[in-house]
Amino acid sequence: MVGLPYDCLANPLGAVRLTFEKAVASGSDPATFEGKDWGATDLFRQFIFDDGGLSQVPFLNPSTMTWVQPNTLVRFWGMIQDMLGNEFYVGAYKEGETWRTNKFADFSQFPMAVDSSPDMRVWERRLLYCVPVPGQNSWIEHSSESLFNPSSISSPLQREKRHREDDTAINDIDMQVTDEEVHACTSNKKMREGGIASNSSNTGDTLNEDIDSSTSVLPYFDRTSFPCLVKIYDSPESNLKLNDVFEFIGVFTFDPEFPVDKNDTNDLESSLCDDTLTQMPPSRVPRLHCLVHRKLATQDFISGSPTFELKSHLVKSIREALLGHLTSILGNDGVAANLITFSFYLQVHARVDSIAVGKLSLNLTCFNKETLSVFGHRLNLALKNLLPFTHCIPLSVDYLNKVSLVPKKDYQTNRLASGILQLAEGSHLTIDETQLQAGTLNSTGVENARVLRNLLELQKVEYDFTYYKMDMPADIQLLVLSEGKSNILPADLVLPLCPVSVDAAQDVETEVLRSWRWYLATMRSLSHTIEKEMQKVLEDDLVAARQADRSLSSLDFSRLLTMGRLVSLSFGETSLTLEHWKMANELERLRKERLQGSL
Amino acid sequence: MASDSSPVNTPGGANPSTPDVSISSPIGNTFSSPGDTDRRKRGRRSDTSTPVAPENRQFTTPDVTPTPRRGGRRASSTTPGAATPSYASDAPPSSEGGEGDDADEAPPMYVWGTNISVQDVNAAILRFLRNFREDSSQTEGKYMRAIHHVIEMEGDSLDVDAHDVFDYDGDLYTKMVRFPLEVLAIFDIVLMDMVSRINPLFEKHIQARIFNLKTSTSMRNLNPSDIEKMVSLKGMIIRCSAIIPEIREAIFRCLVCGYYSDPIVVDRGRINEPTICGKQECLARNSMTLVHNRCRFADKQIVRVQETPDEIPEGGTPHTVSLLMHDKLVDVGKPGDRVEVTGIYRAMTVRIGPAHRTVKSLFKTYIDCLHLKKTDKSRMHAEDPMEVENGVVGSDEHLDNEEKVEKLKELSKQPDIYERLTRSLAPNIWELDDVKKGLLCQLFGGNALSLSSGASFRGDINILLVGDPGTSKSQLLQYIHKLSPRGIYTSGRGSSAVGLTAYVAKDPETGETVLESGALVLSDRGICCIDEFDKMSDSARSMLHEVMEQQTVSIAKAGIIASLNARTSVLACANPIGSRYNPRLSVIDNIHLPPTLLSRFDLIYLILDKADEQTDRRLAKHIVALHFEDPENSEQEVIDLPTLAAYLSYARKNIHPELSDEAAEELTRGYVEMRIRGNFPGSSKKVITATPRQLESLIRLSEALARIRFSEKVEKKDVMEAFRLLEVALQQSATDHATGTIDMDLITTGVSASERMRRENLVSTTRNIIMEKLQLGGPSTRLLELLEDAKKQSSGGEVHLADLRNALATLATEGLVVVHGDTVKRI
Q1: Which GO terms describe its molecular function (chain A) (predicted)?
Q2: What H or E segment, with its residue span, contains residue B439?
Q3: Which residue of A has its CA nearest to B236?
Q4: Does A4 map to a domain?
Q5: With pLDDT > 70 as the criterion, what percentage of chain B qualifies?
Q6: Cβ contacts from A onto B, under 8 A
Q7: Considering only CA atoms, which of A193, A243, A276, A286 is closest in space to residue A419?
């Protein structure tokens, strides 16, 4: 990259300015730039994707926060947790006779007349509040962090430890802040305490003192402690949706010196323009002025892994190995292993009215204390190793009564307070019902149980906006572990677990794990169709089945077809073959047999 | 209007038609302090300057408080007396004789940066206020009357319908929307002038409150180009701040001599505290102190409004916007209200700190509220049926959009609209076409009728679906619930009587008893969908009797006696007893519902799962297609949900079909025929096949069918289709399985005529046996012996013990026998 008059990496704003000046010089009127790009993002696109600059862009995360310089190019992986609406800013203005731009920056680089002239152009940008993907497993960070890290911060191995470090890392930053600022911070904190304490665990205010207590209440939801405020320019609204996982590449601004002066501002101003500035002072929440963003698919998380060719024998061998592994984990229960793998390729691929086509939730029954401690634990571990985002909900009466599962809009802060069920697409959720005892549910508990049931049946989560509820489509792989058939959570597939033997847990080599992850991610993303002839066969089969057994409903058919689809996907096939259809039927038969046997 | 279009800024100081222009534009331009915009606001407030303020029209700076331009106008209580008379005397032609031609006499003044002439606008507003009439027969203009009314009521605002402005003068409307600050200022001056001429003693200021703009913006689409424009948007209030008292006029008192200063008006958001006592004798320094209770304050409130759920695109969160409310608007709405706001979209810069002069390059936006209309009156209050019918309250659906209406009308002209709508209704539920047609009729509904005698006939159609499990009844219900303009979905098991009707609760804050409406009341003018109807408790179900015929819910508890409207259609679905329909039993036996309730349903559909390969195949095909095809491709020619909903609400609101003579004749004929059908030739027994209730149902159905076609006349074919629908429904439900004929008795009493006949026969047989065998006062007989005899005697069919017991019970009431356990004794 020698010879370029700018450095995209270290001085992205310089590059932006350069392109702006160039565009103005070539005769374009800056007034026409509103909602458009004058060539800046093209430049960065080229730099990042075509010139291979992507790998040089450092990740923004708690550990890199210590050394990443403000106003440099960074990238951030996160889930859109809340949308904070639009922000109007002075996009272009005249300094003397020269046009300047403020795009991709918090402050103007050049003095700007306060009430300036008609030559001031107001543009808008969108604010997105992003958090690390909830339930993100540690292996993702291994791949993302180990690559660049000039300073020798070793990637911490354990979550808990890592979490502590996050805190200290940011506290360190805080230390650098001038005394005055610290003072302002604390006073601000005091002022705001009432507001924040209620949703502190969710707004993800890292520095909040009660973060520890809040994590103890929500032990499985502590990953959102590194939020980032992403400012999006010129992107149609429909491109970025709530709960989508994105990679944002842009200019990082973080201003620990930013004065917080809430004390003196009058009420009108604070209530008119409260929110973002007060709750998320730039000294806590980094800003990212997004230049380029792209939606992340599961494969993107497995960076650095060898890309395998999509050959059927290779796929088959990986599939066999993975199935073997899961079978041994589940005490040689092949059917269970098969069904569990199904959920890995699941994807809600269509929604017709209220029906989510392609969902398949599994309920493994016959878990008791002993089997749970052996298999449940091992299963969890395996899931964590295989899937990018996993979650586990230990269902108990107490838990149901206390926890807030659904995201709720907090009108005091005007923010969407996250709930446990605000999950990214494709997350895996294990609901452990074995700890459920008899007890009384209060209204929260009843509501929570209803929400879980809705999720299971419709793949939808109802977000609570106090005055109304809003359905958000979800795409979550669900696994319910229970003693008997779960009545609270009616899953599509119920299977009693029949462990035959308990093998010692085997360690899997990293390389193998990687290939499995790759396999799962790739298979999941495959599209799937069905040939005309096969459709005919399916129809005949279904009709015959229904003639034989009147109790079969459309739901059963749906399930069977989904299973067929998943079997065929697991072989890396893009269309259903008779063989795979038979396999699906066979599995269903085995499952029903076992269900009969267990009754 | 302005023929002279040169954008000259004429200093207006010497202009006779604009009183007291204290600040001329060029001077204003030289100001560059952050607070200078407030001067313009003050100018506006004092009502004496023309709105030709030149400085940046777009942004106000948060000096100390971004004092909004409205609300403060009362502050200038001293000015109108001085200013208006001069105005009136100086410019008589503008206000009396010539309408707006005074522009020729005075040098034109322009709104800064535009070619809008102040005089032109002034004259246009005057013309509008004087001459606008809703219809030509009225002698006095609508707004002249309104102004008189305001003066009488001592009000302080005049509501101006923007539609009226548009109808009268489109140009004025455009100017008003594009330059609201300026035009509204002129508006206020004109109003002030008019008022003072009508009643010179009237002290208050009347502000124009514009509402009902032609176009309504969505909160999401507000963008920088809307700044300083008049916008109108719909939303829901989510948060109201406390009321903020804002000082308008301050009075100071000298601590030394007790001298009270003159009122000091807020200037640029600040009060300039006098440092020296105003009294000549005193002149003490730094002795002035604020006298709080003699200052004047105005109310101010900040309200946050959020998008309504229907405007949020998929995968988005609702946007919010702040509103600034003043004076009378304060506390008009409370959190949870749906409102329609008209106001001026404003932006202000964000300063880094109060001590810093530098501003960030950011703006905070808010809407300076002019008018607030609650669009969703609490249903408990919207009780005047006429009002609802006229669409005054039902304005939540904005269908004034003419284009849209045209489209709908075009759609309604299609010959196959009925079939098309049927197809579009729950397209992923196949078959069940007749059920869907029935549901369609329910959605459109008939005409409610209330006679002057007080009798009223409901227009709502009630439907009951009974069927085997897994026949997508619940899905149909869900779909209808989504589609109906106002619907509540409940499940029978989860509903209690109070939950359905209304209950009295104590407000936790105020301790007042409040009436909370239940599902049925809430779905007034909508459809109440009740799933699992059979599993509902009896007490809850009995509440429905009143609702389904009288359409009201009466309550008498905890000191509240009320009758609430519940003009709702009920769509219920039930599973047969024993989960599968037993074709050998009657409907009543199958669903186990009281006949009294059952007869209130206009249509009862049986959705049976027949073991039919054809249907199975279709099901299989459907599911396969669902899984492996693009669902969008498979649904063609289907009207999408929003259009369907719009179609529906338009029809419900605007189409009120009446029976044509032909249709009425057909109805009579058909009804008579239905009743005749019950008389079997050569049989003395009479089977009632139709009741007056059915006739009413037929009328409702045919009205609904006419409505589907957007037709104001019910035609013969509608009636015929209604008969067909009713027959289809009846054939399925009211078939007497013993005789195979339609029998309304089955519905109304639960016992078919033939069954009744059989019972009567048994009674007479038993009577004969007893008369023969038993002596008066003789020894008793055992029941089983009687049964044997009865079996021998009765000509055909089995005689069960239970039947016999029934017969004996009848005889016992006649005083013929006494039944003691298993023994029977004649007395």
Answers
A1: chromatin binding
A2: helix B433-444
A3: A467
A4: no
A5: 65
A6: 212
A7: A243
Tokens of B673: 């025929």
Q: Residue A104 has what DSSP assignment?
A: T
The predicted complex's ipTM stands at: 0.71
* Rama region for A540: left / alpha / beta (φ>0; ψ in -120 to 50; rest): alpha
Closest to B574 (Cα-Cα) out of B462, B484, B499 = B462
Do A574 and A444 belong to one domain? no
Q: Which of A524, A546, A563 marks a domain boundary?
A: A524
Flag whether A275 is in a domain.
no
Cβ-based neighbour number of residue A10 at 10 Å: 12
| CA distance from start to end of chain B | 106
How would residue B20 be classed by pLDDT, with cut points 50, 70 and 90?
very low
Residue ending a domain, choose from A489, A524, A559:
A524
Instruction: Please check whether residues A422 and A365 belong to one and the same domain.
Output: yes
Q: What is the dihedral of CA B385, B390, B393, B396, to 10 degrees?
A: 130
Flag whether pLDDT at B36 surpasses 50. no
What distance in Å separates the CA atoms of residue B569 and residue B525, rounded to the nearest whole number? 8
Q: Tell me if A115 and B366 make a contact (CB, 8 A cut-off).
A: no
Residue contact A122–B616, C-beta within 8 A: no
Task: Region of B262 please: left (phi>0), alpha (psi -120 to 50) or beta.
Answer: beta
Write the residue in B34, B62, B227 that is nearest to A269 by C-beta: B62
CB A285 within 8 A of CB A253: no
Residues A85 and A178 in one domain: yes
B309 and A470 in contact by Cβ < 8 A? Answer: yes
Q: Which 3 state secondary structure label does DSSP give B244?
A: strand
Cα B112 from Cα B57, distance rounded (Å): 9
**Do A489 and A533 belong to one domain?**
no
Note whether A175 and A35 are same-domain residues. Answer: yes
A535 and A512 co-located in one domain:
no
For residue B50, report the phi and psi dihedrals to the nearest 5 degrees: -80, 160
Could B358 and A122 be called an inter-chain contact, meaning their C-beta atoms sit closer than 8 Å? no
CB contact under 8 A, A268 and B319: no
CB A351 within 8 A of CB A473: yes
In a domain, A469, yes or no: yes
pLDDT along chain A (599 residues), means of 10: 59 81 76 71 79 76 73 84 81 74 71 58 83 78 46 36 40 38 39 37 36 32 63 78 84 62 43 50 73 77 59 78 82 80 75 72 79 78 83 84 84 79 84 81 82 83 80 83 77 79 69 80 76 79 77 77 83 81 86 77
Residue appearing with tokens 């063989």: A579
Note whether B678 and B625 are within 8 A (CB): no
C-alpha–C-alpha distance, residues B610 and A200, integer Å? 57
Indicate whether A123 and A226 sit together in one domain: yes
**Where are the alpha helices (H) located in A330-396, listed in sequence order?**
334-345, 369-371, 377-386
Q: Going by DSSP bridges, is the β-strand pair B338-351/B59-60 parallel, antiparallel, or unpaired?
A: parallel
Confidence at residue B399, expressed as pLDDT on a 0 to 100 scale: 42
Question: Which H or E element spans position B696?
Answer: helix B692-708
Q: Is residue A297 part of a domain?
A: no
Other CB atoms within a 10 A radius of the CB of residue B729 amount to: 24
Alpha-carbon span A429 to A392, nearest angstrom: 6
| Whole-number Å distance between alpha carbons of A127 and A280 | 12
Whether residue A101 is found in the same domain as residue A233: yes
**Least confident interval from A211-225, A481-495, B98-112, B440-454:** A211-225
Question: How many Cβ atoms from other residues are within 10 Å of residue B636's Cβ?
Answer: 8
Angle at A63 between CA A50 and CA A511, to 5 degrees: 65
Provide the residue range defining the domain that includes A355.
312-524
Confirm if A367 and A599 have CB atoms less than 8 A apart: no
Count structural domains, chain A.
3
Q: Which amino acid is at B376?
A: D
